[in-house]
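Service request form, structural biology core

Requester: graduate student, group of Dr. S.
Request type: structure prediction, single chain
Budget code: on file
Notes: please return the result as structure tokens.

Sequence provided:
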Amino acid sequence: MIKIVVFDADKTLWDHYNISIFKKPYKLINENSIEDSEGNRLTLFPEVRDTLKSLKDMGLFIGLATWNLPEKTYEILDLLKIREYFDIITSKDYPFKFIFIAEIIDKMREKGIYLKPDEIMFIDDRRVHFGNTWLYLGNIKCLEMWSDIIHHKQILEKIKSF
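Core staff response, request fulfilled:
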């Protein structure tokens, strides 16, 4: 049974490929879209908010494992008002997602929650991150956004099937 769903951010939660390039000041265009001072925009994908809320309503933990500068990650999450959904956030300026997930596992253990690999679902838009995740962390359920699932509500269906 899945206990935690860990998301990537860029091209998984929102449509921009790299929020680390965003420059202040940011402008909230609407509740789902942000523009930076250079005209870079990001928009939350449809159903993200509802899916995050549904996962919390199901009693699941939610993690974020993103290859972005931490301060930019937190600023964007706060502007979009979705930070509250995430129990654990790992945001680093390097691409090794298996290290991020290991850190999430450790932080959950510090809270008294012990996770086995098959209780973790990891969702990323790039399959390349799955190999080392399986190699170093075990049988984590990995789903490639836009290939294994084509919209966020499908995550809820996949959880029931694992």
